[in-house]
Amino acid sequence: MFTLLPMSAAAPAVVQPGFNYESVKQKKKMLISDEDISCLITATYFENKDDTDIGIKAVAHTIVNRTHDGRFKPTVCQTVKQRVGGHWQFSYQADKRRKISEPEAYRNVSRLVHYIVDNNEPDFTHGAVMFHNRRVHPRWKNTVRIGSFGQHVYYKLRRDI
Q1: What span, in angstroms and rounded, lies between the C-alpha atoms of 156 and 126?
Q2: Segment 132-145, tens digit of pLDDT
Q3: Is pTM, for the whole model, over 0.90?
Q4: Per-residue pLDDT averaged across 127-134, rounded?
Q5: pLDDT tens for residues 41-76?
Q6: CA distances from 114 to 10, 55, 66, 144, 147 (A)
Q7: Phi and psi for 159 in degrees, rounded to 5?
Q8: Residue 88 phi, psi (nearest 5)
Q9: How far is it, in rounded angstroms, from Cα 17 to Cα 19?
Q10: Could you tell me which CATH number the domain at 34-124 has?
Q11: Can you give the residue ranges of every domain in the chain?
């Protein structure tokens, strides 16, 4: 955090001691552990590996959004392994035998997730914490549709609007 001191007519703006202007100009890396990056890549791969880049990134953003919401677990790995009402929050968790079978798709998902993390990419889903494939029609109560990206539809919980 930094504060610019008032500027006088005779002198240019003075910056508080210890302020590093270069660090403000550069985008800061998202704070997330290597383990959570791995979980984010795996979850995004299984949930959306065949989608467009924007669709893949939307799923990753939504998973990260959940970690900032007190109704979900605080880390990516905990969030993707979370069960609510006896149901997995991410369907791929139900089948522990699933393996990464498409290395090229995995590399693409990994590249996109690393781009989001390394560049602290702004969340274009506007805080979505839920999504579903367009082919299904869940009956989720108290949700507001945010929009569609790629093959999925994204939602916020109504109380967050």
Answers
A1: 8
A2: 999 999 988 899 99
A3: no
A4: 94
A5: 999 999 999 999 999 999 999 999 999 998 899 999
A6: 46, 15, 18, 29, 24
A7: -70, -10
A8: -65, 140
A9: 6
A10: 1.10.10
A11: 34-124
Residue indicated by tokens 């089948």: 95
Work out the pLDDT band at 119, boundaries 50, 70, 90.
very high
The reported pLDDT for the residue numbered 132 is: 94
Structure tokens at 92: 């791929």
Q: What is the pLDDT of residues 82-102, one digit of tens each?
A: 988 888 888 889 888 889 999
Give the dihedral sign, CA 82/83/84/89: positive
- 25, 92 Cβ separation under 8 angstroms: no
**What are the structure tokens assigned to 47, written together?**
């949930």
Instruction: Label each residue of 8-49 as H, E or C.
Output: CCCCCCCECCCCCHHHHHCCCCCCCCHHHHHHHHHHHHHHHC
Structure tokens at 115: 């781009």
Reported as half-sphere exposure (CB side, CA atoms, 13 A), residue 129 has a value of: 21
CA distance linking residue 143 with residue 8, whole number of Å: 51
Burial class (CB in 10 A: 0-12, 13-18, 19+), 26: exposed
